[in-house]
Specification:
By secondary structure, the protein is mainly alpha-helical. It has one domain. Keywords: Membrane, Transmembrane, Transmembrane helix.
Length: 181
């Protein structure tokens, strides 16, 4: 076997293997390239930007919280710092999950446009649910007077009800993944 033939054989073997995406940072460009769904291609940069923005907001919030409670010893303040990070993770994880799921599915078994599109729809619904949660849980002094009946309805709900929209959207995203798997 000549060197040229051996080189072609190695290249053919490399083409048969799926392109690795090396974890979370590589999953975004991989999922973007691998999918044929235009809706999912639109979701990938939105998820990236929102994930980075939420991570920055929670990081700066944690720094502020640490500065305000730095001289206090443990107890409730330690729990509140951990809970703060936990809430940030609960917001970012459902944003990242569709990208990771589509990237993994394309790499391992191949995916359908219907699966990618349905996951993108459920992921966009999750983004909308974050907005509804912010409307519901906004402190009274930060609420703008409005003529909108929809916004007024969400303002009238108790702040704890702000947990419901993202929770329902996350369950919908999970069910979409499981049903179309």
């Amino acid at each position: 076997m000549t060197d040229a033939t051996a080189e072609q054989s190695v290249t053919a073997d490399a083409d048969d293997k799926p392109e690795p995406y090396n974890g979370l940072p590589g999953a975004f460009p991989y999922a973007f390239r691998a999918t044929d769904s235009l809706l999912f291609k639109a979701y990938v940069p939105v998820a990236l930007l929102l994930s980075v923005a939420i991570t920055l907001v929670f990081s700066f919030g944690l720094i502020t919280q640490l500065a305000e409670t730095g001289s206090v010893r443990g107890g409730t303040f330690t729990f509140s710092r951990s809970f703060f990070l936990f809430i940030g993770l609960l917001l970012v994880a459902p944003l990242l999950a569709p990208v990771l799921s589509v990237a993994r599915r394309h790499r391992r078994t191949g995916s359908s446009v219907a699966y990618d599109r349905a996951l993108a729809v459920s992921a966009f619904l999750f983004i909308g649910s974050i907005y509804l949660a912010l409307l519901t849980s906004a402190p009274a002094e930060l609420r703008e007077p409005t003529q909108s009946a929809v916004v007024g309805f969400f303002y009238s709900l108790p702040p704890i009800a702000g947990v419901a929209p993202p929770l329902l959207a996350t369950v919908l995203m999970y069910l979409t993944h499981r049903l179309l798997k």
